[in-house]
Write a structure and sequence with these properties.
binds zinc ion; globular; 7 helices; single chain; alpha/beta; 250 residues
Length: 250
């Protein structure tokens, strides 16, 4: 990326709207900061999203298709773990579509969306999937309440406009539906004390680093709550999300 920092985008905290940040360190020439209001760690300012998106070429998903068999096995586990049967499933950031494939096998009408064309082509041609779309979630304009299960594995840390993204998830969720989210967990006991050594820190790629509290606070802005957090041996935040009941609001 040959842009100067003058072109970079400076944002308010997407979780608490705060504008005060503590600088932690630079990595890959990008500043990692912590919001003083809520503790979210993020890259700020950051390169413009058009430049970031251009980095999602097919080399990015080639790694997924190389390990196809293990991806299939993991996808089946993920689908089984959600514990639902039937209805519509949307996998956001579906890559080559292994979760879409596994959900289809499990009896769902399964859909997938990803910004990277190489993965979509693989899913259509090699996995025989027909409900994949290339682009951002917001570009698809799916109907309100269309999906009983929405999964987003290793996606939320990448999206340029977090509130627009989560609002879209909430809009698409059917009554009684669940959202299964996986993202690196800043609050995990295995995150190195020297945060800059954490392998999940990826300039231009992982834009935000959540713990349970910051993710819950972001979700609450959109009427969503964490129903269940799964134990994870590796520093991953794995949560099942549902709509807040009127009793839980506030
Ligand atoms: Zn904040």
């Amino acid at each position: 990326m040959s842009l100067t920092r003058a072109d970079w985008e400076r944002i308010a905290c997407p979780v608490c709207d705060g504008e005060a940040f503590t600088h932690l360190f630079d990595k890959g020439g990008e500043p990692f900061v912590r919001c003083t209001g809520c503790g979210l760690v993020l890259i700020n300012p950051r390169p413009p999203y058009a430049a970031i998106r251009a980095g999602y070429d097919s080399a990015y998903s080639a790694g997924y298709t190389r390990k196809a068999q293990s991806k299939v096995i993991r996808a089946r586990k993920r689908v089984a773990r959600v514990g639902r049967a039937g209805g519509r499933w949307l996998d956001v950031g579906c890559s080559a579509g292994f979760v879409v494939k596994a959900a289809t096998e499990a009896g769902f009408e399964a859909w997938g969306v990803d910004i990277e064309a190489g993965g979509i082509a693989y899913g259509e041609n090699e996995l025989g999937l027909s409900r994949l779309a290339c682009g951002t979630l917001e570009e698809q304009h799916y109907p309100d309440g269309h999906f009983d299960v929405i999964s987003a594995y290793d996606v939320i840390e990448h999206v340029p406009d977090l509130n627009r993204f989560v609002a879209e998830l909430a809009r698409l969720l059917a009554p009684g539906g669940v959202i299964d989210i996986g993202t690196p967990d800043l609050g995990h006991w295995r995150v190195p004390r020297a945060l800059s050594d954490w392998q999940e820190l990826k300039p231009s790629e992982h834009l935000y680093y959540f713990d349970r509290a910051t993710l819950a606070r972001l979700l609450a802005r959109h009427g969503l709550r964490i129903k269940h957090k799964r134990f994870a041996l590796k520093p991953g935040l794995k949560v099942l999300v549902e709509r807040q009941t009127s009793r839980a609001v506030g």
